[in-house]
Amino acid sequence: MLDAIFQALFSYRPVVFQQGEFRFDAGTGALVAAGLAGAVMVAAIVTYRSVRAKGRVRDRLVLTVLRMAALAVVLLCLFRPTLIVRAAVPQQNVVAVLLDDSRSMQIPDWGGRPRGEFIKQQFGAPDSALLKALSDRFLVRVFRFSSTAGRLESVGGLTFNGSQTRLGAALDGAREELAGLPVSGIVLVSDGADTSEASLSDALLALKAEKLPVYTVGVGSARLPRDVQIDRVSMPRSVLKDASLLLDVVVTHTGYAGRTVTVDVEDEGRIIGSEQVRLPADGSPATVRVRAAASEPGPRLFKFRVAPQPDEVVTQNNVREALIQVRDVREKVMYFEGEPRFEMKFIRRAVADDQNLQLVVLQRTADNKFLRLGVDGPDELFGGFPKTREELFSCRGLILGSIEAGAFTGDQLQMIAEFVDRRGGGLLMLGGARSFGEGGYGGTPVADALPLAIDPGTRASEPADLARLQITPTRAGQTHAATQIAASEAASANRWRELPQVTSVNAPLAPKPAATVLLTGTEERGRSQPVLAWHQYGRGKVVAFALQDTWQWQMHASIALEDQTHENFWRQMLRWLVDGVPGVVEARTTTERVEPGEPVTIEATIVDKSYVELNDASVAARVTRPNGTTLDVPLEWTGERDGLYRGTFVSAEAGTYEVAVDSSRSSAILGSGVTYMRAGPSDAEYFDPTMHEGPLRRIAEETGGRFYTPDTAAGMAEDVRYAGRGVTTVEERELWNMPIILIALMGLVCAEWGYRRAVGLS
Amino acid sequence: MARRAKVRTVLMTGVVAAAAAAYAQVDFFRGDGYFAPRFPPAVRADRAFSFCRLLYTSVRREPAGGGWRTDYPYGEINLMIRLSELTKTPVPFEGDRQPTHYVVRLTSEALFECPFTMASDVGTIGLSPAEAEQLRVYLLKGGFLWVDDFWGTRAWEHWTRELAKVLPPVDYPIEDVPLSDPIFSSQFVVTDIPQITNIGFWRRTGGRETSERGADSREAHFRAIRDDHGRIMVAMTHNTDVADSWEREGEDPGFFYQFSPDGYALGINVLLYAMTH
């Protein structure tokens, strides 16, 4: 609309003024005329001065200015103002038209019709409006693009089924294909939803270098009237079998504020978790925490789903998929207990049924006498607590019970700290007469690793007075997976309040600055102290749990025989302790999903058994394709970081790929690791499904083109003509005959006449 | 004269009978005297290991048996002292240098504060339905019961009948525990089940006989009921009086050397097992 008004007033499109060079083309006659005009101006001034007695000074001044302005306009026209523009020579230049063929073009938000309809309407036939406008001026080359790009013979070849939109790749492809040809510009018709991870900057840099303008047409609505979307899902890539998961799901919407929807989590068709959420105001995300159990081993494709809502425009974004590796392995946790006590017995019992936890107990029964429980063989821990890093680091978790620091050598204390810091293991210190400050840990490397601060000057001492504590989760504890002891957050908080009191014989310690307190204990006098706190220490985590008799949560008279609180709590604690603890070979792919046919990058971190990174290992991945065939992929040390190896392979058919990485060194096997990825079409096209004006406008502005909507695209062909690129001819555009000049002149004359009448000078 | 002789004979017989009766009485009560049951306070001062003895009602009598108070309290006192000396187990002691020990009723909630309990002379025990149910819950939650000092077939049959009210034998059969079981090597290696007699019997027989019921109790047994994971819930030392080797350790060196080392080895092993399994 604005363009049309502009063109009506100024005769030309704005691009002519932007690109053109302004000049006057005054001839001899014009100079004579200018002289006459000057004389008229002088005469006008003299005339108005002579009528001094008839008017006020201000009126004469206004009338003089109006007269002078009118004469100036005439004078301007006499000098023949002209724009010198370079216009493309018809049919001598090429214009590339890039048409978005991705799935999102099926979204029906172009006046209630699918976005793709605009393309068909404007480019579907030789006499379609935009195509014809371009064809009249240029040689038009039409391309389609989605995840791949290519020439398009006919718009009928568009399927609008591409699973990705790669704007940068499409622009690069067109630029390269037309290299050497006189190209006036590129026309990009898209909804702007770039779903690739690549940056646009590289593509734009090349276009800017070639001064090749891109004219973008954004199809679709900037806001959908009604839509619900699973926006994000927070899920680990790997968990132990039977893990209780707390999955954060972010739901966004427009048009359904106040409506309650259900978020379901499906494991291959079976609902494993469900939670309701009331949708907030439009545009505000709602975060819902869904509890689910990963009970089936192997690679599992979880689907997070919200049922389609009435009149919803896009329903495909109500489902989001995520691949998770459910590991059916036994993670070894070593528990070193310094004195026979019931706490150890009941922790053992609590996790006895967990097939994915191996609790190896080293129980000191007397001085230099140890009872070993749950060991793998007669030699394991035969000499007491490990004396080498290799032996200690073979465990993923370490629990220190009521065992004093003096029971370890200095090197063993250092090893325990390195177990967390370097190996990435999980360390848990339990409360007891010989732990924390009372156990003489002040000033040791273990104290440095703990999340609770022990004064370095603290010496081993008799246990503190018995504190009877009622346990309450903190805000962080209410939402933490390890401290969920009932079916919902509210039920869990209530359950904590119901549990019988437990005790501590350790003096309260303050949490370190980066520590998170999950549980606090409150004495009868109302004084609180942290009892469960944790923090990240180097590559691993350290948990402090300053209680000595959680077996009360199992044995107490108020606890029913069937109650599983104690079992669940300790299973969750130990699973959390070993969660994310790396192995000797840590294999991963740089992306969880690729399009079939795309390359996949495998990365692996390789360490030896004492967790020192290796750069000279032999590393290879065996890739098992969905059809069962295998492919060996060698991995090379990257040189970027110690222990980091990388290799690539090209995916073929859609499905889940298993990537098993083996490493060896000097013919000795170091270890292996497995990861999974999948090849398949993405649903990303349906997420954030509005028209993305930002990227399209950026492309246009940075390359010297222009952004259009379907309503303003009609003048695009003319704009491209004046892009000044390709085979051009210089054209002069005279400006004196623009309607705006006449209007201005008439306006000034009429204003002067009207003013004179108003002040009585006519 | 004949009448006087007859009276003298009757008197002598009466004295002998009285002496025999008195001896039997002494043997019956084992010279313990009366020790009031030491019930736990409402709020215990600590959560360290405490020996808890079950207080139950006897519904029959066994020769030389004292019901629930058999071997009480010095059996547990001496065992806990030895436990504190021979292991790292923190044993709480009170003002009179006696380790903390308690007596608990089966119907008391205090039972659940004692993950380890012991009962003696269980050949006389009578369990009400409420007691049986409470004991069942206690055991299945993770509690441990050691019964000791019951001899012969009648006592065994009575005990197993009562125990069946708690843990039906179909689901929880009683089994002999082989010497290869971890309970016999928790700390000391026990190579056989010692048959330990009460000190009165030992004195009467000069230490030559250890079977208090003759041929009916010739062999000492260590039997058990296990839970679903194979962990011992109820340990039964039948035809032996292990607790007497603790209770009477200081009364006669001969008795001590003959029984106490084996008795303590077994006792400490069982306690460590109860605290670890």
Which structural class best describes the helix and strand composition of chain A? alpha/beta
Helix content of chain B: 25-40%
Q: Can you say what the CATH homologous superfamily of the largest domain in chain B is?
A: Domain of unknown function DUF4159
Adjacency order of strands in the biggest sheet of chain B: 3-1-4-6-9-8-7
* Oligomeric state: heterodimer
Residue ranges of chain B: pLDDT <50 for 5 or more in a row? 10-31
User: How large is the count of helical segments of chain A?
Assistant: 19
Largest protein-protein interface: A-B, 34 and 31 residues
Query: So how many helices of chain B?
Result: 7
β-strand percent of chain A reads 25-35%
Kindly report how far apart the N and C termini of chain B lie. Answer: 74 Å
Helix content of chain A: 25-40%
Structural class of chain B: alpha/beta
Major sheet details of chain B = 7 strands, mixed
CATH homologous superfamily (4th level) name of the largest domain in chain A: Class I glutamine amidotransferase (GATase) domain
Query: Would you state the CATH class of the largest domain in chain A?
Result: Alpha Beta
CATH top level label of the largest domain in chain B: Alpha Beta
Contiguous low-pLDDT stretches of chain A (5 residues minimum) are none
Short description:
The complex is a heterodimer of chains A (762) and B (277). Chain A is an alpha/beta fold and 762 residues long. The model of chain A has no long low-confidence stretch (mean pLDDT 92).
Describe the structure.
The complex is a heterodimer of chains A (762) and B (277). Chain A is built from 19 helices and 35 strands. Chain A is an alpha/beta fold. Chain A has five domains: 2-87 and 731-759, no CATH class; 90-222 and 690-726, von Willebrand factor, type A domain (Rossmann fold), CATH 3.40.50; 227-326, Immunoglobulin-like (Sandwich); 331-578, Rossmann fold (3-Layer(aba) Sandwich), CATH 3.40.50.880; 585-679, Immunoglobulins (Immunoglobulin-like), CATH 2.60.40. In chain A, strands 18-17-16-19-20-25-24-23-21-22 form a ten-stranded mixed sheet, with helices on both faces. An eight-stranded mixed sheet of chain A has the order 26-28-31-30-29-32-33-27, with no helix packed on it. In chain A, strand 23 (516-522) and strand 24 (528-537) form a beta hairpin. The longest helix of chain A is centred in the first third of the chain and has 23 residues, at 28-50. Chain A is elongated, with a radius of gyration of 38 Å. Chain B contains seven helices and nine strands. In chain B, the strands form two sheets. In chain B, strands 3-1-4-6-9-8-7 form a seven-stranded mixed sheet, with helices on both faces. Chain B has a two-stranded antiparallel ribbon with strand order 2-5. Helices cover 38% and strands 15% of the residues of chain B. With 277 residues, chain B is an alpha/beta fold. The radius of gyration of chain B is 20 Å and the shape is globular. The interface between A and B is medium-sized, with 34 and 31 residues.
